[in-house]
Amino acid sequence: MRLNKMANQSQKMVFKLVLTGGPCGGKTTGQSRLSTFFENLGWKVFRVPETATVLLSGGIKFADLSPDEAIKFQENLLKTMIQIENTFFELGRTCQRNCLIICDRGAMDASAFISKEKWEAMLVANNWNSVELRDNRYNHIVHMVSAANGAEDFYSTEDHACRSEGVELARELDYNAAAAWIGHPYFDVIDNSTDFDKKMNRLIACVCQRIGIDTGDRLNVNSKKRKFLVKSPLLPDSDFPPFQDFDVVHNYLQSDFRKAQVRLRKRGQKGHWSYIHTVRKFHPTNGQSVEVRTQLTHRDYLNMLPQRDDAHFTIYKKRRCFIFNNQYYQLDIYRQPTHPRCRGLVLLETYSAAYDQDALLASLPKFLTIEKEVTGDPAYSMYNLSLKEDWKTSTKYYAGSDNNGQTKCLTNGHSAEKLNGHAEKLNGHSYNKVNGHNEEKITTYSKINVHKMNGHEPTNSLDIDINNCKNIYGAKPRSPKIPKKDSLKV
Question: What whole-number distance in Å separates Cα of residue 313 and Cα of residue 317?
């Protein structure tokens, strides 16, 4: 399936990507590699220049500015950045092709260079808020870790006229740049655990997976989404690294659950919200799944909300996002009202390529008590957790599909007594077995989750036959038909 270059507005996509990171992290090379790759797939690619470089190359020396001048400079820099980006965003909106807009840093990067108090004052003075600048403005954030953190032998400032940071300062700037984006719903970290060429490959694979381009095994990578059961209560907030907390509300919509699961998500802070429509589609023959996420306006969200499936509870969570040892984590704390099976439930999610279970568990945050890994276990699927009916009698309990695409029996091959026993154990936090599985047994991962994140190398090179990729898999992502036309989140 080839990309239709004359696709109408309802079929095409505008994907807004931010490349951020510390000095000498590979952002410039990454932009070039991404541009070549997506242009070969038939996309239009716009590259938004780094606003700070544009201004600093005009003779401004940040070190010479007084504190008041520095704050005003950052404020004007952000205003300039927003206007430059808006120019490219408008071009993307009217472009007749699928469009990738690559921003060299984004709005939240400015917060890494001033105090939290000054940043908050700047937001108030300009009627800005973090949810709009961070979550709603961009579809995907990729942090390219500085060579000063993990590849020190390759750190250099010689080829950049506006760069003079030493290794220690570069590390600090790298950490601050990552911390500025904590909380964005689609935030990936590409570290220096591989050589530079593979780092670029991992970047391209990561972006392709977030967009939803199915290139089969040619872009397959080792990293998978991993989910862990966390014992509550949690330690005090002071024991966590810097974090961002969000209120999250999920509603499942009416659909044929054997073919697709459809849900709405509302996510926000301090009364400011972002809205996402997600369709999880199941392959008709191999049982694998792909998730397509689309950003909604508030009006779109309200219009779709009446399609709620009455068989499901609304799910309420507090989502805590943080970085620990260069790894990005999301901690979901379930809230009432919901089914009793969710009371006290806390789940940790990240991406990892580690196959040794002991090594994986040893790398997780020490301030959390991990009960066990529950990746792929249908008993911890949000779809099943939200069901109003008892699992042993429900006709909607989804245990996945077999290799022939046929829906498995509702109890995943186990007796109703065991399934019901699990629900009781879940409330009591006794987690030796779930649905009759031993802890180390995990069901097949969803295909969409097999993407690189947080620094693990891919299994295949990205030196692929682009034409074959387009012919066999198609460069056009699968998107649901919903009112929003100019923006897609994956």
Answer: 12
pTM: predicted TM-score of the whole model, two decimal places: 0.58
Give the pLDDT of the chain (490 residues) as one tens digit per residue: 333 333 334 478 999 999 998 888 888 888 888 887 888 777 899 999 999 888 888 888 878 889 899 899 999 999 999 999 999 999 999 999 899 999 999 999 999 888 899 999 999 999 999 999 999 999 999 999 988 877 777 776 554 444 556 788 888 888 888 899 999 999 999 988 888 878 888 898 889 989 987 654 444 456 678 899 999 999 999 999 988 898 999 999 998 766 789 999 998 888 888 888 888 877 666 566 667 777 788 999 999 999 999 999 999 999 998 888 878 899 999 998 888 999 999 999 987 766 677 777 888 999 999 999 999 899 999 999 999 999 988 888 888 765 555 556 444 333 333 333 333 333 333 333 333 333 333 333 233 333 333 333 333 333 333 333 333 223 333 333 334 333 333 3
Structure tokens at 449: 């989750």
Query: Which residue matches tokens 């005009």?
Result: 58
Phi/psi-derived region of residue 183, left when phi > 0, alpha when psi is between -120 and 50, beta in every other case: left
> Is 292 in contact with 278 (CB distance < 8 Å)?
yes
Q: Would you say 458 and 225 are in contact if contact means Cβ atoms under 8 Å apart?
A: no
Q: Which of 221, 21, 46 is nearest to 105 (CA)?
A: 21
d(CA 411, CA 419): 7
